[in-house]
Amino acid sequence: MRLLVYPHELSIGGSQINAIDLAAAAAEGGHDVFVYGVPGPLVPYIGERGLQFIPAHSLKYRPAPSRIAQLAAIARKYRIDLIHAYEWPSCLDAYYGAGLLLNVPVLCTVLSMQVMPYVPASVPLIMGTADLGAEAKKRQRNDVWVIEPPIDIARDTPEVDGTAFRRRYDPSGKELLVVSICRLALDLKLDALVRAIDAADSLAAKHPLKLVLVGDGPARGALEARAAAVNGRHGRSVVCFVGAELDPRAAYAAADLVVAMGSSALRALAIGRPVIVQGEDAFSEIFEPATYDLFLRQGFYGLGDAAPGAARLARQIDELLCDPERRQALGQFGHKVVSERFSIERAAKLQIEIYQKILADPPKRRIREAIDSGYLSLMLEIANHNPLRKRRKRLAQLRTFSAASGGDWPPAKTS
Q1: Domains plus CATH for the chain?
Q2: Looking at the predicted structure, is the pLDDT value of residue 296 above 60?
C-alpha cells in the first residue's frame, strides 16, 4: 500500500505523535508511507522515524482550498492508495480533492472528545474511546472502529532513567515530584492545569512537593503568574515550568506521581508511574483497578461536576503522597495494563486490517453529504473569524481561569 498520513498539526502533542508512530509501524511492515502536514516541531521526529515528509501549504482556513488542491496533486503524483487524516479539518482537506475528484479512499481518526458533525457520514472513522465509537455509529453510514491511543512500550518502559531530571528539579533529594506533561493550552487543558497548581498550593505546607509542568503554549504566561503567587506564599519553588520537550520520558520516570490526561496518562503508566487522570469541569480520578472499566469506556479523560476549587484533586494527590507502597503498586498495575492493551504493535496490526478492508470495499461518495459537510464547516469558519465571537471566546476562557483560580483572575488593575 502507498499511504499518506495527515496529522492535524505537527506541534508536540499526543495525537500527533501517535499518528507518526503508527505511520512508522506501517512503513516497518513494508508499506510506502508519506507524512503530510504544516511544518512544525515534530518534523525532525518524522525524519527520525524514517518517514518521508511532504510539507503542506500554510493556510489557516478550514478546510483549506490550497491544501485540497495540493493533496489531490500529491495523490496523483505518488499514486496514493489511501489517505489517513486526523481530526475533521484534515479529513475535509483530503475528502474534497483527492477523495471526491480522484476517488482516493479517505479514513479519518478523531481523537478529540466529541463526535464532530463536519465529517461526511460516508467517511469511515476511527474513534479513540468506546463511548465515542458508539456515539459515532449512530450517525455514520460507514464503518466505525475504536483504537485507543497506542503507546510504544519498547521506548516507554520502567527502565527509562529519570535520575538527571530528578537532580535538576530536586537537588536536595527530599522533594516529592508531581509531574504534568501537556500542552499549556487555553482550550481543554486550562481548567486542569489551574487546578493542579491550586492543589499544589493547598498541599505545600503538608508535603515537600514540587509540581513540575512540562510543556508550552498560549496559557503559559497566565499560569506562570498564578504559580509565582503560590511560590511567593510558600517562600520556595512549589511550581516550576520546564517548557516543551520532544522526548519527555525522563520527566515521567523522575515523577513520584503524574497528573495527566489522554496519551500522556498512558505514557506515564507505561513507564510505571502512578497517575491521576484529569479532564474538564473539575474531573479527576486515580487510575486503579476500581476505575479501569471507566477509563476504557470514556478514555483517559472525563467531565466532572464543575465544583469550584481544587479540593478533589488535592485530596487524591494527598492520598497517594501519603502512601508510597500504594504508588508503587499502582505504577506496576498501570504498566501491566498498557503493555497488554495499549501497545503500538496491537494498534498497528488493527489499523493495517482497517486499511485493507477499506481498499477492498471503498466507500461510496455522496454529493449531498459533501454539500452538507461543506456548509457546516463554512459556517463554523465564518463564526471563528468573527471578531465579536473571538472576544466572547477570550472572555469565556478568562472566566474559566477565574473560576478555577478562586475568582482572582484576571487581577484587578492598580492605579
Answers
A1: 2-150+343-384 (3.40.50.2000), 163-339 (3.40.50.2000)
A2: yes
